[in-house]
Every structure is written in structure tokens, then in C-alpha cells.
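User: Hello, can you help with two protein structures?

Assistant: Certainly.
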Amino acid sequence: VHLVESGGGLVQAGGSLKLSCASSVSISGIYAMGWYRQAPGKEREFVAAVNPSGADTGVVAFLKGRFKISRDNSKKTLYLQMNTVSPEDTAVYYCAAGRYFGGTYYSSESDYDYWGQGTQVTVTS
């Protein structure tokens, strides 16, 4: 599984950005997927995740209401809609995929086997 993120860039505070993560293989019904981010000098942190069907999603509490995760299995693509961004959202954003073994969505890094190279998001004030 090869994952490629896109959509990052420079955005002003209060603006919106939509990240995409394209998979090299079908992700339908097989892979749970998630977004993580790593800000300069900080550890990588969980942002959001979705189960294989897209029916169950989860966003870390402090980003709820601003970030939304979705997937289009027909396009083999994962998305992260980021709204009302702030400079604190500046980070490299990574998508991840892991084999699904049931449950809802996965928030632990150890649940994911495949990672993209990351896309930089920089929010200016």
C-alpha cells in the first residue's frame, strides 16, 4: 500500500484547507484509515480516523467542529477538511492505513501499518 498526501500549503488563519490521501490499492472494506500531524519540536499526534465503510469517524476532541474526515472508496482516497485554521494547526500531516479487524475507528499509531510521506500545512496569522 502506497499512500500519497496532497493539498497542503500556506493558508491564512481563519481559512480552510482540504487534504487528500490517495492510495495505490483499493481501500474499500479492508483498511481503516487515519490522519496524524506533527508540529515542529513536537511528537506526532492523532487527528482523525475512519473505519473502512466510512460510517464511523472520530476526531480528536480539541479539533472537533473544525476538522472532518471522510473517504471515497471508489476513488481510493481519504480526505481531511480543515476549517477555521489557526497557526497552531501548522504541522506536517500524515495519512495512515491499517488492516481492519472490527470495531469503529482506530486512533493508535500501532494500528496502522502504512504511512504517507506527509504534506506540510502552514497557517499564517
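That covers the first. Now for the second protein you mentioned:
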Amino acid sequence: IQLVETGGGLVQPGGSRRLSCTDAGFTRAIGWFRRVPGKGREAVACINSSDRTSYYSGMGRFTVSRDNAKNTVHLQMNNLTPEDTAVYYCAARSYLCSSSPTAYTTWGQGTQVTVAA
């Protein structure tokens, strides 16, 4: 069942961006990952089916939340730096969060976030 990410774009250093992931499936764990060219997918954050959140990177600058009425999970990113430049993906799995990309069964197409002056 499909996931669709939106919200990517160009952001100035120190700026903010909110990514959204619309999930056509049932309420489940949604993880956010990012990939820099030449590197593997890095876990960023996750919200499980009970809306418990987990954070793996971003050093307190990122917040993940769910809008149940819209079947959408948001990733709010603040105080962005050029090192946050990446393709950001959301991914789904049943119930619990995981920082491992291989634990997720469904992936969105990705959205590019570029942090530059």
C-alpha cells in the first residue's frame, strides 16, 4: 500500500522544513530515513502505531508527529544545516519502530531536501 512524501525543496541554513508522508494503509509505524549519495539509508525518526516516537539522528532538531484524521505523518525539521541535505524517505512497517531500513516493508518515492545559501 502506497506512501507518498511531500515537502522537499531548497532551504537556507538555519531554516525549517516540514515533510509529510501520506499513508494509504492502516495505522502503522512510519519511519523517516535519509540517504546521501554514496551512503546507505540513515534512520532519522519514527512514530509507531501507538504514536510513540523514536529519534535516531538530528540531535533534537527533528520532531515526528501523526495526523490521524489525514493519515499523514509529519517530520518537522528545524535549524537545518548543509549536512541535512539528502533524499528523505518514509517507510512503513507493522506496529513497532526500528532503525533498520530492512525492517520496513513499504517505501515512498523519496523527496529531496537541499540545505544551501
